[in-house]
Every structure is written in C-alpha cells, then in structure tokens.
Design a protein that fits this description.
The complex is a heterodimer. Chain A is mainly α. Chain A has two domains: 44 residues; 85 residues, Cytochrome Bc1 Complex, Chain D, domain 2, CATH 1.10.760. Chain A is built from five helices and four strands. In chain A, strands 1-2 form a two-stranded antiparallel ribbon. Chain A starts with 17 loop residues before the first helix and ends with a strand. Chain B is mainly α. In chain B, 78% of the residues lie in helices and 0% in strands. Chain B contains 17 helices and no strands. The relative contact order of chain B is 0.09. Classes of the chains: A mainly alpha, B mainly alpha.
C-alpha cells in the first residue's frame, strides 16, 4: 500500500491520508461513545423514574376527604409562600409540619380566624378551616420535621 | 443563509431577550418589595401581601431565564449551523405563546389565583400555552439542527436542556393525578424530583450558549470538541438526573434517594477541582478579553459558579444539610445561582446579540464598569447577609430550648436590613445597565 492511501474502505474516507482517516475514525467512534453514554444515562434515569413512580415512598393509603380538601385549600391560598412543610416553603412564617401536635387545632384555627400583623385574614369558610386543620393533622401524622431529631453520622449520612 | 431569514431571526431573538430583560427588571422590583415586607410587617397586606409578591417575583425571574435562554439558543444555533432557522412562523408563535403565558400568570397572582405549589407555581391551565410554546421551540431546534453527529458539546447541552425541561415540567404536574397527590410525602418526593432536575435543564441551555459565546469571543473552538468538555457535560447530566434528592434529605421518604443524591452530588467536586486547577489560566484569559462587555459578565459568572458550587457541595452532605435546610442559606444558594450565574450569563448573551456590527451596546465603558462592580459587590453583600441569617436561623432550629419564631425573626432584623439595602443597590445598578441597553437598542433602530 502506498503511503497516504486509506486503510479504510469507507467511500467518504478514501481521499484522506492514513493519519487523517485514523482521526476521522476516532471521531466517529467518539460520537458512538457519546451516544452510548447518553443513552445509558437516559435509560438509568428512566428506570429510576419508573421505580419511583411504581414504588412511592408511602405507598397508596386511603386519605380522608377533609385532608385532600385541606390540601386543595392550602394550595388555593398559596400558604407555602410563607410557611414550610418539612423545611420546604417560604421563610416569612414558621414551619407548620408538626404544628398540630405541638400547638393543637384551636391554636391553628385562631390564627386562621384573626390573621396576624403579617398574615392577612383570608376569610376562610368554616368548612375550609376544618379542612386546612385536617390537612395539617395529616401532615403532622406523616413524620417529624424537627432537625434535632435526625441522627447524623461522621460519614455525612443521616437517619430519621 | 438568506438575509431575510437572518434578519427575521435576529429580530425575534432580540424580542425574546428584550422581553426577558423587562421581566428581570419586574422580578427585581417584586423581589425588593418582598424583602421590604420582612422589614415592615404588614406592608401592602390588604392588596399585595407576601403570598402574591413571592410568586410574582419567582415567575418573573424564571420567565426572564426561559425567554432569554430560548431566544439565545435559536440564534446561536443558526450561527453554528449556518442555516436559517427551520420556521420563522413557529418562532413567532412560540414568542406570542410565551408572552401570553406570562401576562396571564402575572395577572392571576394579582387577582389572588394560585397554583399553590412550593417554589414555581401557577394555575395548571396556564401551563398549556407555555408547554405548546416549548414544544414549538423544540421542533424548530431539532429541525434546524438536523443531526447530533460530530456536534460540539454546546449542541449536546442545548439538546439535553430542551428535552429535560419538557419532561420535568410535565412531571411537575403529576400532582394533578390522585395517585401522586394523595399522600404529602409521595407528592413532595415527586415534586422535588421534577423541580431539582428542571433547574439543571435550564442550566444546560444557558451554559451551552455561554460556551458558544466564549468560543466566539476567543476564536478558539478546540474546547467544545474536547474529551474534557464532554466529561464535564456528562458529569452535569448525571447530576441533573440523580442529585435532586438533596432538596428532601429531611423528608421521611426512601433512604436510597438520599444516598444516591449524596453520592452523585459529590461528583461535582470534580467540576470544582477543575475550576481551581484552571484558575491561573482563567485569570490570564479574563485579562485578555476583559474589554469585551459580554466577557466581563462571564468572568463575574465564573466567580459566582465557584462560590455557588462550593456552597451547593457543602449543602449536599446530608449531615450538614440538616443544619442548612429550611434556612436562608438555601435562599443564598438560589440567589447566587439565579443572579450571579444565570442572569449574568444571560446578560452576556444579550449584550452579544444586541450589539451591531458598527456600534457597541455601551458607549460609556467607564459608566458600565462602575455599575458592573457595584452590582457584583452588592450581590456579594446580599449573599453573605443571607448566609449569616441562615446560620443564625440554623442555630435557633437546632437549639435545645427555642425562643418563639417571631423573636428569632426579630433577632435577624439587622441582617434583613442589610439584605434589603444591598438588594436595593444591586437592583438599581442592574436596572441602570438594563435601561441603558434597551435605550441604546431602540435609539439605533431610529
């Protein structure tokens, strides 16, 4: 074979030198590796997503209607703009994850009726107040959001 | 490329950027109003209380990012391929659907109608025009691109950003299905899975465009085809897909989600290590191109990437996250990322796109320089005040005997004051830069 003649039989490569063809081949290979890496990650992500959708953390339990309605009211008045549940939400008001067991339903109702200096009076109906209280009871029953109760280990992991 | 198509794309791309800049201005005004409500409790309570101001701020800022990022991508894609964009009609419709969406979304907040989801929320029905616009954006992108073969890393980043944003946005509406909605822990797990990855998706669009711009300025196209750039891209993609669990370490959800997220997040140390390793050469390159307005904002974003990434890695360790979660340290991270990284990079892209062949965006560079430094210094003070407020709140959260929430907030008041003042200075400096950019643009049109 003459120097500079292609060792590859692909028609698109034959006009280049051997060195150029090797580079082109590596680039084609590199494209395949990139696509393989991308597809592998997407498949892993799809499998992870599918597993999570089909194995939800708490599974399917019968949730009472007032809790579901209370959640709708919580969203309707955008309560999470100021309040947190499990530390997720706004910072203007306190975290309400365990307010039901810590303060009781009368305390919750009192705030909803009067509002505060910062919190507007939302003029909730009696039904809405009962539902939001039921929702906060449901949230409270789901776990403990107090960070002091979480065990911390030297390897950086935690245990609830 | 036909001149007519080129002009049309340039015009629409500029419309995306200018609309985005107006939203950035509005978002800052809403944000500062919200900060003022921390200092003056009950301010505007009867008609513009915090539950309205917060989504107004968040949605304005998110739409600034989405407008500017999508406009920037299509324009740079056309420059990259050398072909006209597939359909100017689709581009027009996308723009109009985005504008319609944001007008309706902002209006519904003023009217007291909410989606009520934490972070980015609006009524689900308003997701329809926006999603349609995004699908049209995707069609235009893929039809213009053709093939992924032999493409540089920024094309991969744009592709990933467009696809994953659509997926995660759709996923964030799974709560409409009772199967996902009925239990708060299930709902929050899936919600933060979607939101965590969604931020990674729009970051892909922005980082891809800034990389394209970087190569355009430097004239060196080696990096975006190098194995290193792809290694970092795949590290970013890996994190986009699997590190979202760090948002919900304290939620009583699956333990494996937390461990996966912890492990995956630590791969970001590779990116941090590279930034440190390349520091000296980055500084040298920065000095060479610093006269370029866009490059100047990219250098600032580089510094913010370092600070924000450092904070993100620390917060991704579950045992540390227990202290930082639910405190203003989280807000500091978000502000560093959306202002210091996303907004500065998008401004760099905007200056590049708004510049004409004959005239620069800014005529008075001394004036720009002053506002540039004021913006960066005030952002740093703003960021630090949030971190200190977060540390104090964390101390309160972890203390054996807690004082009441209102007393703790009262103790943080000096920091809220600093946060407000530095935020106001930041806003004014950026508004001046935005105002000058928009004014100069329209003056040139006359």
């Amino acid at each position: 074979m003459n120097p500079g003649t292609s060792v590859f039989s692909r028609p698109g490569l034959k006009n280049y030198s051997t060195t150029q063809n090797v580079h082109l081949f590596l680039r084609m290979l590199s494209d395949k590796i990139k696509i393989a890496a991308f597809v592998s990650l997407v498949l892993a992500f799809a499998a992870y997503t599918f597993y999570l959708y089909t194995h939800l953390p708490v599974g399917q339990q019968k949730t009472s209607d007032p809790v579901i309605r209370g959640k709708t009211a919580w969203q309707k008045y955008n309560c999470s703009a100021c309040h947190q549940i499990y530390g997720l939400g706004g910072f203007l008001g306190p975290d309400l994850t365990n307010v039901y067991s810590l303060r009781g339903k009368d305390y919750i109702r009192a705030f909803m009726i009067t509002g505060t200096t910062i919190m507007p009076q939302f003029h909730l109906s009696e039904q809405e107040m009962n539902d939001v209280t039921a929702f906060l009871y449901g949230v409270d029953s789901s776990g403990n959001a107090d960070p002091r109760s979480i065990k911390k280990y030297y390897d950086g992991t935690i245990e609830q | 490329m036909t001149e007519q198509s080129n002009n049309k794309l340039r015009m629409v791309s500029r419309s995306f950027l200018l609309t985005g800049m107006l939203l950035l201005a509005a978002g800052m005004v809403f944000g500062l109003t919200g900060a003022l409500q921390y200092l003056v409790p009950g301010l505007f309570k009867s008609y513009l209380s915090f539950e309205k101001i917060r989504p107004l701020h968040v949605s304005s800022m998110v739409f600034w990012i989405l407008f500017a990022a999508s406009g920037g991508v299509l324009s740079y894609l056309q420059q990259h391929t050398g072909r006209p964009v597939y359909s100017n009609l689709l581009l027009d419709i996308q723009f109009k659907l985005f504008v319609l969406s944001i007008i309706l979304i902002l209006y519904q907040y003023f009217a007291g109608v909410f989606g009520g989801r934490e972070y980015w929320e609006f009524h689900p029905i308003l997701a329809i025009p926006f999603t349609t616009g995004w699908v049209l954006f995707g069609i235009n992108f893929f039809k213009t691109l053709g093939s992924l073969k032999k493409q540089p890393v920024y094309v991969w980043m744009w592709t990933t950003g467009i696809i994953f944003f659509l997926f995660t946005f759709a996923e964030s509406y799974l709560w409409l299905i009772p199967y996902f909605r009925n239990n708060i822990v299930n709902d929050m797990t899936i919600q933060w899975k979607s939101y965590g990855s969604m931020v990674g998706a729009w970051n892909m669009l922005i980082y891809g465009s800034s990389l394209f711009l970087l190569e355009k300025i430097s004239g060196n196209k080696k990096y975006s085809n190098s194995p290193m750039s792809f290694a970092l891209y795949f590290t970013g993609l890996f994190n986009l897909m699997f590190n979202w669990g760090h948002h919900i370490y304290t939620l009583p959800t699956h333990g494996f989600i937390k461990n996966v997220s912890y492990l995956v997040s630590m791969t970001e140390l590779l990116i941090l290590g590279r930034i440190i390793w390349q520091w000296k050469s980055s500084v040298t390159t920065a000095a060479r191109h610093f006269h370029h307005v866009s490059y100047r904002f990219m250098v600032a974003a580089d510094a913010w990437i370092f600070l924000t990434l450092l904070l993100a890695i620390v917060m991704s360790v579950p045992a540390i996250n227990v202290y930082t979660h639910g405190t203003h340290i989280t807000v500091a991270h978000t502000m560093g990322a959306t202002i210091g990284i996303n907004s500065f990079l998008l401004l760099a892209i905007a200056f590049d796109q708004l510049e004409d062949k004959t005239k620069q965006v800014f005529i008075n560079m001394k004036w720009l320089n002053r506002n540039y430094w004021i913006a960066n210094i005030s952002l740093f003070v703003f960021w630090i005040s949030l971190i200190i407020a977060g540390i104090l709140r964390s101390r309160w959260q972890m203390s054996g005997v807690r004082i009441p929430f209102s007393s703790m907030m009262e103790q943080l008041r000096p920091l809220f004051m600093l946060f407000f003042v530095s935020g106001a200075v930041l806003m004014v400096s950026l508004l001046l830069i935005l105002g000058q950019t928009i004014k100069n643009h329209f003056m040139r049109q006359l």
